[in-house]
Amino acid sequence: xxxxxxxxxxxxxxxxxxxxxxxxxxxxxWLKFLSGILxxxxxxxxxxxxxxxxxxxxxxxxxxxxxxxLYTSKRVQGRRLEFSNIVMANTVGLLLMFAALFTLTxxxxxxxxxxxxxxxxxYVTNIVMEEIVRLLIRRFLRSIRRRGYNLKHILLxxxxxxxxQYIDRIQxxxxxxxxxxxxxxxxxxxxISYKGVKVIGSIGNLNYILPQNSLDEIAITLGLxxxxxxxxxxxxxxxxGVHTKFIPDYGNIIPTRPYTEDLLGLPVIxxxxxxxxxxxxxxxxxxxxxxxxxxxxxxxxxxxxxxAILVKATSKGPLIFAQERVGLHNKPFQMYxxxxxxxxxxxxxxxxxxxxxxxxxxxxxxxLRKTSLDEFPQLFNVLKGDxxxxxxxPERPQxxxxxxxxxxxxxxxxxxxxGMTGWAQVNGYRGDTSIRKRIEHDLYYxxxxxxxxxxxxxxxxxxxxxxxxxxx
Length: 472
Prior knowledge:
It is built from 17 helices and 12 strands. It is of the alpha/beta class and 472 residues long. Helix 3 (54-67) runs antiparallel to helix 4.
């Protein structure tokens, strides 16, 4: 059996990375000076001069890979995060090389002739090759783990919802290479099993199991009512030297990703992580909203002008329909849309959502709703700061009051600015669709916000967010 020796694997990984760096660098030199694919250029500096730089580049890049967690176990690092770390490590490496050349030029004028363009080719090539190599390593590990090799053997301490959820995820992802040997619990009879994983004894059996040294990890999955046993179990596990982790059974209290902070040595668990509560993140997003809304207003002004003319020409009433919605921190604001319905009384407006073939919607209004052109005036809401380009869609006050009682965690969506488009909308949850599913997607967005995710949602909106089969 192949043992899971992370230290040995890391050494091998470092050697592979060093080889990849060298190959990428030599290929970049060939591409610049010999290939003829690009503008052919005779190098002022010799091949040997360029190659001597590798004596510094290779160790610096390996250190950067360590700094950006590229030697973290593949079991716990996702592919997208790994690729992001590869890009960041190489970007820092490129900046360091430019800085070094700038400094060295003042001591040796020869470095002025060192091709910066070649270094950029190396930057791109190395990112691509590192990603390919890591994908191949992942495929190899997945293959041998499916055949029963390179496994981590785990014992669960405590039968709870957390234990069941942990078993579920391990069995759904055999490529992780985890094998659950069994569960110890004081309240469940020996022999009872969950999806093939049996209760093999009481928690007291740890004293006999741990000295056998046949386990890679202990996962403590106690139920909430048994947390008083935690300190003793942790002390017993750590005495044996077996790696121990804690999977808390508070899924019904904290159903999503919490985060911790250090309060002068006191760990504090925050129930929900909201990246946009960070001042810098909020500032960056607001800058994007202001610039983006101004650009869109200018870019789509002909479309908005034509829509305005059609609305005024085909029905009586105001051009813009302003409706109260609930926004950031539960504060109401007036959201703008092109009017798509015949003028109604306030009571008629409160009747409910628009249905298919709703007689209240004008002919032009049906087209504007179907193509989402009626939403364009909300660019001015974004400019004012009531809304964002991307975020959970805002709802009317009466529905907020209704859903806050019916749907758990509904009100969390108001911790960020509402958006013109959102993660729920680009995944098909618009109009007359599941509110619960919509909230699940909104919460995912709130807790996983990045500038890149905003760009992705805007990109998807262009291709599949405008035309909406559920818009009536």
